[in-house]
Amino acid sequence: MRHPAGILWTGLFLLCSTSLWSSTLGSGDPLPRDPSGGSLQAGQQAPVDRQWSPGTTLSPTITLLSPYLDETLQAGTVWTIRWSSSEVSDVRIEYSYYAPIGWREITASVPAASGSYAWTVPESPSYTCRVRISDVAHPEISDEGDALFSILPSEARHFAPVWNGMPYLPMKISFAMVAIDWIPLRWGDEVGVYDGDICVGSVYFEDYAGSGQFVTVSRDDPGTPGVDGFVQGHAISYRLWRTGTSEEFTDMTADYQWPTSSTVFSSGDSALVDLFATGPDLPVQIASFHAVRASGGSVRLEWETLTETNNYGFEVERSSDGRAGFAVLPGSFIAGHGTTIQPQRYVYSDATVSGGLWYYRLCQIDLDGTRHVGPSVACDQTVLQVVDRVPASLVLEQNYPNPFNPITRISFTVPETGRVVLRVHSLTGEEVAMLFDGTAEASRVYGMAFDASRLPSGVYFYSLATNGSHVVKRMTLIR
After folding, report:
1. For 284-380, which CATH superfamily applies?
2. Could you tell me which residue, 129 or 308, shows the higher pLDDT?
């Protein structure tokens, strides 16, 4: 929470450089949040969050009241954002599901005096969310929550078990790793557990696969009509659902870690399993696909193919959340090379993108018009802030979090405006990602998101280079 310069909270009092004073709140006054986190009530004595002296103009202030701490919101529901303010006419409201970068606008302007705004929580499941509220006339006057809150997926499910309520003589199945073509499942993806063609359990991922997710499956209850669970001793099978591409996968390998023989349903038993699904064979083998922030605020997409069969070409799709809402970018079609066994390189620049975190994916088109959609990559277009003092040399911050799985963020600042390249390399020196290649301005902090979903666990190095200077740091990916 930001306060005007010269103000310091101590206990329940406000120490100012000029004077210390308090006022009595009336029934029509905004209710500020006290230092302990609660809201003051009308009639209470409260310290005033600003300096004052006779004849001076009161400074505008904004205080976010909700969501403020570690609330849990559910996508698709309506949450009331609340705030208090003084000397502010209109406020702008934003949120980030990857705070503190990737801010997205909720509303450009709403009267500050209203004190609340009904927000339909978007389908952007994450546990690193924040809301920010700022003065439209003076954006530097703002406030955001002191802790992260979570957005859970909506109740919509692709897999629907035949039972509900309390499971009958259940079995618990835990997942160590779940991946499609070695790409781990993400927020909003699902696993369905089947006895033949009957779904007897499902889990909706609220984190990246491999983080201790499990599913409870229910046995058929003989005391109820119909089939409402698995049959003891029947073989266990699985299906995966990838939300981002709306695809169901049934061709997979189930590698049981413990117990090694638990491939059949058994009441009261448990199992730990890795699931590796294989997608359909594509006519084009894509070796790499990167999104890089370039000069002028554009995003440059680069991809390479190993072989191509009847490849008419590619179109580029973009989304703001990486899970749904992908749309083809007008004019993004790039012709393919038909059938070839020679590696090919493609480049496309998106000059229409605005600030924030964006996701891109390729749609490959066959000569007969058949379309194939691949996994997405992320590119963060956010400039975090403007710093007061230009650094004397390159500043490359340690990535956070570290260790990470599978997304982390990297920020940097440069001493003078010029071309900057930010790359990620493996221990063997292979370049696995290029996060930034363009002009960076002095006095600005740049924040980049690095998504290592396609990479194995291990140590990686990220390097920042500009004008003859070079800085390298190390980070660890743990799955």
Report:
1. Immunoglobulins (2.60.40.10)
2. 308
